[in-house]
Write a structure and sequence with these properties.
Layout (H helix, E strand, L loop, with lengths): L16 H31 L4 H4 L1 H21 L4 H20 L4 H22 L3 H4 L5 H30 L1 H22 L11 H5 L5 H21 L2 H8 L7 H25 L1 H22 L3 H16 L1 H12 L4 H30 L1 H29 L14
Helix pairs in contact: 1-3, 1-5, 1-7, 1-8, 3-5, 3-16, 4-5, 4-8, 5-16, 7-8, 7-12, 7-15, 10-13, 10-15, 10-16, 10-17, 12-13, 12-14, 12-15, 13-14, 13-15, 13-17, 15-16, 16-17
Subcellular location: Cell membrane
Membrane topology: Multi-pass membrane protein
InterPro entries: MFS, MFS_dom, MFS_Efflux_Transporters, MFS_trans_sf
Length: about 400
């Protein structure tokens, strides 16, 4: 944890798990809002008079802005109670969803997604390190999996339910329902989240001191490669399922639900595995994300092949968030809030880069070319993680010291 925060629960007699669940619902809400256009892309684009590639900006723009907002929120928060900050950000999330639902034009929609970028950066940066403040050390692995399980759960319930609502009532209603849900999460947060005071404000100097942390740098590079490669392909999963695998549009919501269920399983499997063998867990995830686009090119041309590969995709990507956050916590245990802010920034850089680059490739060369490029990013992540695993193995007993500046967690 950063020097500004405590690493132990404030009140040992208080049941911390409702607060952990509230934090998980906060990440669920913001990630669902961020990902909602994935299931509605082909409906929103013609309604606002834009191309499918342009519609990808609804993902890349807020993700790119989150890169800036994540460290800014931590720096500007000063000594403010983190509970109040989360409450304010959840209130802004309600506003962003309402504005999206009412958007009369493409410019209005982009403005709403700018506001969402602030929410993404702030909520992830603060909530990412909450496990250490809410539960005892022995329960941190489970608490972290629950908080980041909100990311996987967003795929299970958020994105497919958004697609289902969009099919039945129109895409605007999907954002409207999300505005109401975010308001309910805000109410729960105010009810169960304890005060989260800080001893001192985080400064720019504390960010700069982490430049020499090689483990942290390696984790940030892996985050960029894995997330960018994934979102190059996943941003366009709906047209991929329709045009390549041959599904009817009525199946999209159910398919995304199946993907999300696999993602939740991947989240908890990776969370438990990463607590013991972080580097090898990340390498296994990278291998899975490499195989998905390659196998889709070979076997994804039928509904059966597309369905099986979609499940495998969810299982592989479901562990990304929790495995990489575990890497960050091990790499910088005394500066967790700062590490979380940097992680959020790089993670969302990957989303922005992947969604933007994928849009350019899809518009210029088509969906299959996009799969090849997505595979290339995953291959680079696999090579990096395997290289780090080999380096760690050869370091022998020195690696067991768990120094913050070691090559890999």
């Amino acid at each position: 944890m950063s020097p500004s925060t405590s690493t132990h629960p404030q009140d040992p007699a208080r049941n911390p798990w409702p607060a952990v669940m509230a934090a998980g619902l906060a990440t669920f809400s913001v990630v669902t809002t961020e990902m909602l256009p994935v299931g509605l892309l082909t409906a929103i684009a013609p309604s606002l008079g834009i191309s499918t590639g342009q519609a990808g900006l609804m993902l890349s723009l807020p993700a790119l802005l989150a890169v800036v907002f994540a460290p800014l929120v931590v720096l500007m928060a000063g000594n403010m109670d983190r509970r109040r900050i989360l409450a304010g950000l959840l209130a802004l999330l309600v506003l962003a969803n309402a504005a999206s639902a009412l958007a009369p034009s493409w410019g209005w929609m982009l403005a709403a997604r700018v506001l969402l970028g602030l929410c993404i950066g702030g909520i992830w940066a603060v909530a990412g390190g909450l496990a250490a403040r809410l539960v005892p050390a022995a329960a941190m692995g489970l608490a972290t999996s629950i908080i980041f399980g909100g990311v996987a759960a967003a795929s299970v319930l958020g994105v497919p339910m958004g697609a289902l609502i969009g099919e039945g009532a129109g895409w605007r209603w999907a954002f409207g329902v999300m505005a109401v849900f975010s308001a309910l999460v805000l109410g729960l947060h105010l009810w169960v989240m304890p005060t989260l005071p800080v001893r001192s404000a985080v400064g720019l100097r504390q960010f700069l001191t982490l430049r020499s942390n090689r483990a942290l740098q390696a984790g940030l590079w892996l985050s960029l490669l894995l997330v960018a490669g994934h979102f190059m392909a996943f941003t366009f999963v709906r047209p991929l399922l329709l045009a390549v695998s041959g599904f009817d549009a009525q199946w999209i919501a159910a398919l995304l639900l199946a993907y999300g269920l696999a993602g939740i399983a991947g989240n908890f499997i990776a969370g438990l595995a990463a607590a013991r063998r972080t580097t090898l867990t990340v390498a296994a995830i990278a291998l899975g994300l490499l195989l998905v686009p390659l196998l889709w090119l070979a076997f994804g041309g039928s509904p059966t092949g597309g369905f099986v590969l979609l499940l495998f995709w969810g299982l592989a990507y479901g562990g990304v968030s929790v495995a990489l956050m575990t890497w960050m916590m091990k790499a910088a245990p005394q500066a967790m809030e700062i590490a979380a802010a940097l992680y959020v920034g790089v993670f969302n850089t990957g989303i922005a880069l992947g969604a933007w680059a994928g849009g350019q490739v899809v518009d210029g060369w088509g969906l299959q070319a996009n799969l090849w490029l997505a595979a290339a990013w995953a291959a680079m992540a696999l090579l990096l993680s395997l290289g780090l695993a080999v380096t760690r193995h050869h370091s022998g007993s020195a690696a067991k010291s768990a120094s913050p500046d070691q090559i890999a967690p």
